[in-house]
Design brief:
This protein is α/β, with parallel strands linked by helices. Helix content is 36%, strand content 21%.
């Protein structure tokens, strides 16, 4: 066992609704001791700034560029994360000196793997200054330098968690993270690892609901529950080259778009997109080394009973079971933030964050930039 460090992970995902934060005590390898976690929502004004940043970022050609108002958006995002850390520490009676490192994801505003270009806004130096804690950030870039897709990064943490699956668990197991974009992690015999983005997760449903109602998401799947699946619309999405290409690739939020207004009803659109989430996962899972027996779902999508129901019904046709991470003894809401804490410790130790089987990188590589407080 290596030196165990206390780390905080910060994650702001594709949905751009808030900051997930989690504390983890880990050696970056086999030791994983879960601490408290929390969620800090963005106020609507900040969320509007992040949404505008997506448009501004489209002009970026070199990842350090911050055109227009993107630099100010980055500063505000970093300060929001600093405020979340301070509040979290206060809530749990912790001091900055109790924490060895923060793993800071930032906010993805551009991801073009075919151009080896990924941009996550977030100023690691400013965060370290504001919190008084060392920060590891910018963990995707080195993977791309070595030929990887820059995503997904969470599989290294899934691998560590897999050692703690219940003994009676039916394997092979696949971890499914349903965030704005969904991704899969397969762990087979001999800890064989394969992972990739699987398609749209909550992103299209969120965009569909917000465009029609002004609400950020379909709470409890209530809108989708009142609709029906429009098969022709599902088929249109599934015809995307993403699902048929021989090489798995990571996704940007603009790779799939919601239906046009008026194309289907609000409820039918929500139900169809919920079904699409499950169908996309299973289609992408067909590229794994072997068929899964159990899908362990984390991320916000597990809280939408319509997504989970559609996914479970489709998976059952191939004899697989779908469960929420909590049924396997994990915290499905904190898992991504925990992963960023885990990856930060691995970065400090120079351990790989990505592998050929996860991002297509040429060899296992570490990553991240360390800023001392």
């Amino acid at each position: 066992m290596g030196e165990v460090k206390t780390a905080i992970g910060l994650m702001s995902g594709t949905s751009m609704d808030g900051i997930d934060i989690a504390l983890l005590r880990t050696d970056g390898e086999s030791v994983v001791r879960h601490g408290p976690s929390g969620y800090f929502p963005y106020d609507p004004g900040l969320r509007a700034i992040w949404q505008k940043a997506l448009t501004t970022a489209k002009s970026i050609r070199e990842r350090r560029e911050r055109p227009g108002d993107l630099a100010e958006a980055e500063r505000k995002l970093t300060l929001a994360h600093a405020a979340a850390v301070k509040s979290f520490l206060h809530r749990h009676r912790l001091q900055p000196g109790d924490i060895d490192v923060i793993g800071f994801h930032g906010q993805t505003v551009l991801h073009r793997p075919d151009e080896a270009l990924t941009v996550q806004i977030g100023d690691g130096a400013l965060l370290a200054e504001e919190t008084g804690i060392d920060v590891v950030y910018d963990m995707r870039a080195n993977d791309m330098v070595h030929g990887g897709q820059g995503a997904p990064l969470i599989p290294a943490y899934h691998m560590a968690l897999s050692a703690n699956l219940p003994e009676d668990f039916e394997t092979p197991a696949v971890f499914v993270n349903i965030g704005g974009i969904s991704n899969l992690t397969y762990i087979g015999e001999g800890r064989r690892l394969a992972a990739f983005d699987s398609g749209p997760g909550n992103m299209l449903i969120d965009q569909w609901i917000e465009a029609h109602t002004g609400k950020a998401f379909d709470k409890g799947g209530r809108t989708a529950a009142g609709g029906s699946v429009v098969g022709s619309l599902v088929a249109r999405y599934m015809e995307s080259p993403f699902f048929s290409a021989n090489i798995r690739r990571s996704l940007d939020r603009g790779d799939f778009v919601p239906p046009q207004k008026g194309e289907v009803s609000l409820a039918d659109g929500a139900r169809t997109l919920a079904h699409l989430t499950g169908a996309a996962i299973l289609k992408s899972a067909s590229y794994l080394p072997e068929a899964a027996k159990t899908y362990v779902v984390c991320g916000g999508g597990r809280l939408n009973p319509v997504i989970m129901g559609e996914f479970a019904e489709l998976a059952a046709k191939s004899g697989a079971r779908v469960i929420a991470a909590e049924e396997a003894g994990f915290d499905g809401g904190a898992m991504e933030a925990e992963a960023w804490a885990y990856l930060a410790v691995r970065s400090l130790k120079g351990l790989p964050l990505t592998y050929p089987g996860t991002t297509g990188v040429s060899e296992p590589v570490t990553g991240g930039v360390l800023v001392r407080a």
